[in-house]
Amino acid sequence: MVNIDMRKDDISIVLCGAAGQGVQTVETLLTKTLKKSGFFVFATREYMSRVRGGVNSTTIRVSSKSVRAFVDRIDILIPLSEEALPHLKERISPQTLIIGEKRFIEVLPNLKGEKIEIPFEELSQHIGGKIYSNIIALGAIMRLFKADNKVLHGLLSENFKSKGETIIENNIKAANKGYETADDLLKNHIFKGEFEIDRVPEVANDYIIDGRQAIGLGAIAGGCNFACFYPMAPSTGIGTFLAQHALEFGMIVDQSEDEISVINKALGASYAGARVFISTAGGGFSLMSEGISLAGMTELPLVVVVGMRPGPATGMPTRTCQEDIDLVLYAGAGFFPKVIFAPGSIEDAFNLTQKAFNITQKYHVPVFILPDQYLIDSYYNINTLNIDALEINKNLIKTDPSYERYRFTDSGISPRGVPGYGNGLVDADSHTHNECGEITEDPIIRKRTVQKRFKKLGLLRKAAIPPEFIGSKNFKYLIISWGSNYYLIKEALEKLSRDDVAFLSFKQIYPVHSSVFEYLIKAEVKIAIEQNPTGQFAKLLENETHINMNHRILKHSGYTFSVEEIFEKLKKIIEGDENI
Amino acid sequence: MKISSKKFDLDDVEISWCPGCGNYSALKVMKEALTDLEIEPHELVLVSGIGQAGKFPHFIKAQSYNGLHGRYLSAALGIKASNPELIVIAVSGDGCTLSEGGNHFLHTIRYNPDIVNVLHNNQVYGLTKGQASPTSQLGFKTKVQVFGVINEPFNALAVAISLNASFVARAFVGDIDKTKDILKEAINHKGYALVDLLCPCVTFNRVNTFQWYKENSFYLDEAHDPLDRMKAMELALDTNKLALGILYKNPSRRPYSENVRVYNEDKRPLYQRDLDKKKFNQLLESFK
Fold first, then answer.
1. Domains of chain A listed by start with CATH number
2. Considering the entire predicted model, what is its pTM?
3. Is A93 helix (H, G, I), strand (E, B) or coil?
4. Which ipTM score applies to this complex?
5. At the topology level of CATH, where does B13-285 sit?
6. Partner residue facing B82 (CB), from A208, A272, A396
């Protein structure tokens, strides 16, 4: 009998197979069924840049409490191809239960881990063929969690609605077959693998939203009505999401000929008063750089998402990193103010995108959102996205014949009109211009326009989102990080369980909130954690504060940090420090 | 009686073109065409890129968007798509439109936004002082093209017809009246209207002068059917004698702002619209 010490309240399941094998369908049904059964769920994907074949995996966590970070640990592994075990061998431990076809589980005979053969394919022959084998596997997993079979049946009916009654019935049969097979194995004591995870009934009513949907929803909630993009991983899905909801919300969603056109169309639309949103990744953003400086010069509102993947150039299209701060921070000729956000959670992705629209409409500066592939491709259950309190600020004035678009004001912000609203004239110009937008080479006006831009940067600094402080006030060690490392570090710190370690997490990268000084001054040891080769954010903070970091924990393999990895590296640094 | 086109004049503006430049006539004819069509300055958005022609919006009273070199058609498309009530005229030269902005030229034709694209064509670079442009003739000598132009000239009209542009015309600024008629038809056309405007540069192009254009062009007569695409293509490809007038029209193409459907039921421009929170909450429910 296989005997595994089951973690009672936190199970990590990994599905691994080739692209095009339908792993995503299983993953979606699995997480939805478990969520509706009252479990907290988290899922994240790593995949190759190909449509068929290769080897991809999804890590799913199921727990009685909120889990929102990637772990290396695998409790249950369902290999769906011969490549699965070699691909995941570093993550497999003696505690890993490997369930599946004989030919997939016996690829590496010396591999630790407990193996249970279930002939999914053979079982599927009685139902209608190989395509049902994944759903049989799904049914088997459901049995281990004692998930509600009715919930799964409902989801299967919904998911295969367009395929007709027979297909729905076969899928339900397949799920039941998997359920029964696992049940038999348990009853016959072939293995002991039943989980006793507490259920939280309220979770059943939660939302399951991934990073791309959260950004898309944030854009809609921000009043977006003109979105434009050129397909590029990891951001393509954001544009796809918006396109699918375009008519519902009266949005124009356009796939343009190139990123240069994307940003210039968006700025034209913004000039005419549309609330514009564009999304891309590092390579495409490089093409937009000229347009970004046009946004700076014309003071046209613009929200830009730059999904981060490893570069340079084409790099690794479907992998993750956090290495585009420098690119975005310095994009565009000349000096002009901008705002950079980096979401650390699904809620952040939604809230920051929504907020970006109001910030750009208020200050007339480009606002950037930097998610990474890991966040974009991750999801978990969340309780609420409160939109009732959300405001949509247009900040538009009706113009009259005396209107001047770039009037100098004390704040640096000029009241914004759009053509067609009132009978004034609204001019936008890529040249240095005077208050009404006419070309000028007057040195005094040029100086005043630079001052105008400085004033706005000052206002933006004051309005910056402060970093979130986590931990005891009496810290010695301070971890500084940003973006999607948020939950990875939080969980690693829970494991570390020390009251002299605190964590300062930034969701606004630039301009940096002034409270950073007091934290950095107070910390004896400052440890920056980032997924890029140089510590781009650490460098930015060092430049701004003239306070240096003591350690940098950097990763740049193209694969996200895991909780365990951060835990080990922090432990080593802190123990090393104590031994001095 | 002639109505004054003064409403499009700007006070205190110093025009920075060379004396004798074809652009002066282009400016005059544009103001007159707009006046004839009873368009008011605030109803009109003039969009341009960079170059001598790109300065156009600065010398005429209207809403104006003087963007980046080569990118003006993308901007014009975004403006018109966001507020179809605005009249959008995009003006720039052969370098801006066909060289730096070649890709946008091609794709804007595919989108068919309801804009007028006046392509000031002088077959030379003016602002950067006399280099060849994509429409310069083979053998045209400059300080850069020291042995003469070796690259095949860009035939904007033939390209536009091949992409099934919905309105393709050529005009010559040396003839104010006929150019005005063509421009007015272009403005009244629903969809993308290209006007290749022969507009001599008196400083850097001593080959393609006013006189040269006069001698090397002819007007299409009433026998020409602008719905005949093959004939239009034949005329566009004949660069020995330049056909003036409306070469091609395709009334069956719908403009972009109709194709995107967002104005089918709600005619309001985008800036007037608000988030439908009820619909948003419904969408959110689908994630449960």
1. 2-205 (3.40.920.10), 209-382 (3.40.50.970), 468-578 (3.40.50.920)
2. 0.97
3. coil
4. 0.97
5. Rossmann fold (3.40.50)
6. A272
